[in-house]
Amino acid sequence: MTHRGRVPPVRRPFSPLLLVLLLNGLAQPGCGKVGAPLSPSRPTPARLTGLSARQQGDAVRLVLPRPDLAALASRGFTPDRLEVYRALEPQDASETTPAESFLEHARLVAVFGREDIARSPSEEPLVFEDGPITVFGRRVLYAARLVDARGRPGPLSDIVGIELRGDVPLPPHALQAGDEAQDVVRLRWAPPTRNINGSAPPNLLGYNIYRRTAREGHFGPPLNGATPVTETEWYDRDIHYGTEYVYMVRAVASAPDGTLIESRDSPPIRFTPRDTFPPAPPEGLVTASAHGSISLFWTANRESDVVGYYIYRAPSPDAPESAWTRLNAIPHPRPMYRDDAVQPGARYAYRITAVDRAGNESRPSAIVVQEVW
């Protein structure tokens, strides 16, 4: 059996030449001097770009690009938060404010935590609403930067500025919705009476109407497109019955440079359109008899949601309502029907109704009378 122990060191004779070399090395000043260890450079994130700011009523809506956490982590920087700063530009400022000067006068107005910015960069950007505004006629500057878990900030983003106006209308109010016609939701609202700075009449160009479903998190573009609506009502014709919608309206002002400024949101309302509108009564009902049965024919209804028809029969056209019998249990899908449950030589009165997808039944058609042959 082999024992693996520690091998004793081999003793070598001391060399006088080695002693001389060591003494010469100690005697040379600065030669082989060892300084303080250099710290590795700290990774920093890319400078945020693409910030945008616009006035909305008595607030500023700041949109920030969502940082790509995966890309930052690949460069060794793990953000802990995103800080947003605001500063008022001096009225006599003639040059772009440098980052150093901006931070000297800016104040921290918002912080997005890591959880807020952790979603995919392909999703909606980060939005900060700064308001209410109390200073008009001044230029407000905004910038942002990322900070890591040890409190070390990254570079400041580009600085965006916006001049705040006081002649922007207050939001509309008393928004109402109703389904007063087939496949249409009618919206009505009351106009603002003054601007956010208290001046009157309001600087009012028109209105933008917004809608989302109750399950959606944010509103899309205006339903009315790029042109503001000048009336205080709007007809939403692109609806689905049974879907809960959230509606909101903003007033629109025009600035001297031609840009449009929206008010804040009106109080939103929720509305679920219901189909309570029956189809039109069927037309063109005619009958014919042959081989002991009666056939009925009529013109198909034009409504796209009509799913069929109910066929009613009575012994005479002036029979009471209780004497009319419905011949089919479910709506008949085609504009024709054959009644075989008749007696030869007897006379019968017929009328039909149309039924839509929601179960609404139309008024009866004209009555026709047919003898069985």
Kindly describe this structure.
The chain is mainly beta and 373 residues long. The chain has 3 domains: 52-163, Immunoglobulins (Immunoglobulin-like); 173-271, Sandwich (Immunoglobulin-like), CATH 2.60.40; 283-371, Immunoglobulins (Immunoglobulin-like), CATH 2.60.40. Helices cover 8% and strands 36% of the residues. It contains 4 helices and 21 strands. It has helices at residues 16-27, 69-74, 99-105, 114-117, and strands spanning 52-56, 59-64, 79-88, 107-113, 126-130, 139-148, 160-163, 173-181, 184-190, 206-213, 233-236, 245-254, 260-262, 269-271, 283-290, 293-299, 306-314, 325-326, 336-339, 347-356, 368-371. The strands form 6 sheets. Strands 4-3-6-7 form a 4-stranded antiparallel beta sheet. Strands 10, 12, 13 and 14 form a 4-stranded antiparallel beta sheet that branches. Strand 12 (245-254) and strand 13 form a beta hairpin. Mean pLDDT is 88; it is low at 1-33.
